[in-house]
Design brief:
Elements (H helix, E strand, L loop, with lengths): L3 E2 L4 H6 L4 E2 L3 E6 L5 H14 L4 E5 L4 H11 L6 H6 L3 E5 L2 H4 L6 H22 L3 E5 L2 H6 L3 H17 L3 E7 L19 E10 L2 E11 L9 E6 L2 E4 L9
Parallel strand pairs: 3-7, 3-8, 4-5, 4-6, 6-7
Antiparallel strand pairs: 1-2, 8-9, 9-10, 10-11
Bound molecules: adenosine-5'-triphosphate and magnesium ion (MG).
Length: about 240
Amino acid sequence: MVGRVKTGISGIDKMLYGGVPEKSQVLITGGPGAGKTMFSFEYLYRNAKMGNTGIFFAFEEDPDRVLENVKSAFTELTDIDDVVRDGKLVFDAETPIINALDASEIGHSSYEFGKVMTNIESKIRELNATRVVIDSISVFDIMIRDAALYRKYMLALITNLRRLGVTSLMTIEMESPDRDKLIFKPEYFIFDGIIALYQTGEETKRLLASEVLKIRGSRHSFVTTPYDITPSGFRVFAAEDITPY
Ligand SMILES: Nc1ncnc2c1ncn2[C@@H]1O[C@H](COP(=O)(O)OP(=O)(O)OP(=O)(O)O)[C@@H](O)[C@H]1O
Ligand SMILES: [Mg+2]
């Protein structure tokens, strides 16, 4: 039986009947500001505290800014710096988008992708990491304009991460933050799991809700569940009393 990896976010682990399957490659999709970065950071933070080394590959933002943001949002998680200092949670800066600004031609984007993949692999091996976050893989979509090639690269990325034995969360932008407008993009089908973070409601009363869209080979909740980003981390109000079996 495949083991499960806790996200460490208790409501989500409930919805996942214990966690995501070990070595699975899971997509975190959501609109701007839904909390994709915070969520994936908390996964690594909680896992680091459980003794599992994780790497946060920051593709879009400077790692120092990510760290600053999570510390200002999660004020009650006072040991974030200690966990980072201990090397249990490592930030890695990647700038594929800058490198790829003129990578419109296929040969060049292949080269850039190869470079990024090599770096990801060597970092994982060097640190013996078992938990990975890539924030976000939307850059690949911008970098690789050819749809078939983009899909092929996504498959290569997932296959490589699986081979390395890591359990990963990869964030991706959702076209619309609203559940009603959810579109399954072709690349969604190659991931082992998808968790969506929605935002609905008016500006003055924003509602946040999470949903497990799929987890291959595993039971999970189908209920769209409200969440909040609090000083002590994500609070996901899982309503069901789920007993894993
Ligand atoms: N200091 C803070 N205190 C409380 N909530 C915060 C704080 N900083 C951020 N947040 C919450 O976190 C949200 C942003 O989270 P995050 O950066 O993870 O979103 P994202 O989905 O990664 O967005 P993007 O698509 O822009 O990368 C904000 O919209 C806000 O609700
Ligand atoms: Mg983000």
